[in-house]
Specification:
Helices cover about 35% and strands about 20% of the residues. The protein is an alpha/beta fold. It folds into two domains: about 1-120 and about 365-370, Enolase-like, domain 1 (2-Layer Sandwich); about 125-345, TIM Barrel (Alpha-Beta Barrel), CATH 3.20.20.120. Helix 7 (about 205-210) links the parallel strand 9 and strand 10 (about 220). It is globular, with a radius of gyration of 20 Å. About 50% of the residues are buried.
Length: about 375
């Protein structure tokens, strides 16, 4: 339909400082905030959809903010006039025009889903499978510091209502054992704990950590970088294993399922290329009864609403948890009701992402193209 054709695309930039200061993870890597790119896609009938992509620095994933903006500026003019309702066809077109760089396509794909929902009056959860329940379990990540500082941070998050914590490990094994034990001692029994090395260890370090903590209850997340290393760890332990960085597409998940590697996965929208490809990965995981986390590499309200909407349409018994990134930062990029209490979050219920976005709040766009 002509009314659904893309008439304009605008790109904005927003710096989002972290509320709790410097965020540190393995290897001494750190960031002060998210460098977010926000995209607005307008259809000929005047409806608008919004998407967001914000990497955690340039060290976490094969993505960086400046590169995303350059790639979006290359793609945007070639999407003008295309049918915005043909989201999968537009994903194929983006893959044809730009090989790789899924993070640059993620915000565009997100904006297309938001636009489609606004045009038809449906929520993202309804369009991606149908909402199950009305709330999502949240976790909070505890960045690497001295053990007592991490314990204090854990107590703070528990006081704020979080019941699931992700402890960042991946440095010196003995020090990481001390970090984990300090956090565990500081939180109530029943707190769900994940230990996430962010792919920083080899098999030797991972096995040492597993041996030193075998008496405790926690989930191990992405200990090693390579597929083969994680498979060796899997064969050496019966502890639940979740993979994050490894799951960069449907092929990676199918291989992991075939090898009996994973008990759960974390899907990040920017890593896989957006909601469309995340949904495909999610649906494969559902078919194999894997625990599923859906989130992203960073952002504020726009991004939180997107990955949360997809997770809300995931079977309740398979939902692992997600993260409220909009509460990590000191600025906002949209208005919407995110009700958080007792470690769970309810998300906006309006069409598309359910948000009210005021693009004037971002200042002048850094790029714009029109029909």
């Amino acid at each position: 339909m002509a009314e659904a054709s893309i008439s304009s695309i605008r790109i904005f930039r927003q710096w989002q400082p972290f509320r709790d200061g410097t965020y540190r993870c393995s290897g001494g890597r750190s960031a002060e905030g998210f460098d977010s790119t926000i995209i607005e896609v307008t259809s000929r009938d005047g409806n608008r959809g919004y998407g967001e992509m914000a990497p955690l620095g340039s060290f976490y994933d094969p993505a960086f903010a400046a590169g995303a903006r350059e790639a979006m500026q290359e793609l945007a003019p070639q999407l003008i006039g295309c049918d915005a309702s043909g989201i999968e066809a537009l994903n194929r077109r983006m893959d044809l025009l730009l090989k790789g760089h899924p993070y640059a396509k993620s915000a565009i794909d997100m904006a297309l889903w938001d636009l489609a929902g606004r045009r038809c009056g449906s929520t993202l959860a309804a369009m991606s499978g149908g909402a199950e329940g009305s709330s999502l379990p949240l976790y909070r990540s505890i960045a690497q510091q001295a053990p007592d500082a991490m314990a204090a941070r854990a107590e703070k998050y528990i006081a704020e209502g979080y019941r699931r914590l992700q402890v960042k490990i991946g440095l010196d094994v003995d020090e990481d054992v001390a970090r984990f034990e300090a956090v565990r001692s500081a939180v109530p029994g029943g707190t769900v704990l994940f230990c996430d090395a962010n792919a920083s260890w080899g098999t030797a370090e991972t096995r040492r950590f597993l041996m030193a903590t075998r008496q405790f209850d926690y989930v191990l997340e992405q200990p090693c970088a390579s597929y083969e290393e994680n498979l060796a760890v899997r064969r050496a332990t019966d502890r639940p294993l979740v993979l994050d960085e490894t799951i960069d597409g449907a092929d990676a998940l199918l291989r992991a399922i075939s090898d009996g590697l994973v008990d759960g996965i974390t899907i990040k929208l920017a890593r896989v290329g957006g909601l469309t490809k995340a949904k495909l990965i999610r649906d494969i995981a559902i078919a194999r009864n894997l625990k599923i986390t859906i989130e992203d590499t960073g952002g504020a309200q726009i991004d939180t609403a997107a990955y949360s909407g997809l997770l809300l349409s995931t079977p309740e018994n398979l939902r692992q948890h997600t993260v409220d990134f909009h509460n990590w930062v000191t600025v906002s990029n949209a208005r919407g009701t995110f009700a958080i209490a007792d470690g769970v979050m309810r998300i906006p219920e309006g069409p598309g992402l359910g948000l009210d976005v005021d693009p004037d709040a971002f200042g002048e766009p850094i790029f714009a193209c029109h029909a």
